[in-house]
Amino acid sequence: MTAPAPQRLDEITSSINDDLVQVERVLREGVRSVAPLIPEMGEHTFAGGGKRIRPALVLLSARLCGYRGPRAIQVAAAAEHLHSATLIHDDVVDGAGLRRGRPTVGARFGSRLAILAGDFLYAVSSQMFVDDGNADILSIFADSIRKMAEGEVLQLSRSFDPDVSESVYMDVIGRKTATLIAACAEAGAILGGVTRSERRALRDYGWELGMAFQLVDDALDYSSTGQELGKAPLADAAEGKVTLPLIVALKRCSVAERETVVSALKGFSEAEASVDDPARQRELAHIAECVSRNHGVEFALERARACTRSARARVEPFLDCDARRDLLALADFVVQRRN
């Protein structure tokens, strides 16, 4: 019997579609400014689409916990503003030219303006959390900002380092990705006024979902096409990011293979050549072959599936409802996606 096709994200979030439409409106309202370039950069950012998983998590968690009021829209939009700020800054740090198949803010407007646009979105997000007035919500997102910055610094400080361990890698992705997704799920629980154990369960759901999301992202960098990713494949290796597929391959490969990969990483760290340079492309191909031969992608995806199983276990005890079913389906979507 043929397995049923996985649900699309828009099918999973159809129950909150009206709220997501309102979130989009609030996102645009948030980038109004006396400086004309700020709304232009904001529109460029939000028009690129994106999965909107973080606002969806706020909305679905809130519904699961019995809250359907307007505060969920504001908190969801603030979370997406915060996420967008991190993406703009990350693209500047990485020197990325494409995101979701379109020029990054930095590529279109220049790095200096992109940094300021990210700063503006951080400020907008912070003000929205303050305006909401709940100290717990403000606290969990403030903590997320700190941890995300720490995660990016940790990752950058270990760029091109073939000795990055799996535990260091997991710490990095927990800080840079899972912490914000966990905060979104927990924020919905706070809005719903549920018990501490239920709030903790939803935070843990978000954490495991976030870990799975980043693990899949890092696997797709080695296994998907540029058209699917909306950016060049093997970008992580080219930027010196030693992610789980490569960590596993370096542990399993032969001495000769390891020396080849280490030499390539060292060359990337010292060279000024473009990622499109033929010599660099050949070295990236060698790294990809090493990861493939040693099943690095499969290992990372299995770890992601373990995280989603753990995520599902956190929400299964809640009463059955549309929001619970959507959260369970969202966990499945995260490990089945191709971009």
Account of the protein in words:
The chain has a single domain, classed as Farnesyl Diphosphate Synthase. Helix content is 75%, strand content 1%. The chain is built from 17 helices and two strands. Strands 1-2 form a two-stranded antiparallel ribbon. It starts with 8 loop residues before the first helix and ends with a helix.
List the helices and strands and how they pair.
Blueprint (H helix, E strand, L loop, with lengths): L8 H4 L4 H14 L6 H11 L5 H12 L6 H24 L3 E2 L2 E2 L1 H5 L1 H22 L2 H23 L8 H27 L3 H28 L2 H4 L5 H4 L5 H9 L2 H16 L7 H16 L2 H20 L6 H15 L3
Antiparallel strand pairs: 1-2
Q: Which keywords apply here?
A:
17 helices; 339 residues; globular; two-stranded antiparallel ribbon; mainly alpha; Farnesyl Diphosphate Synthase
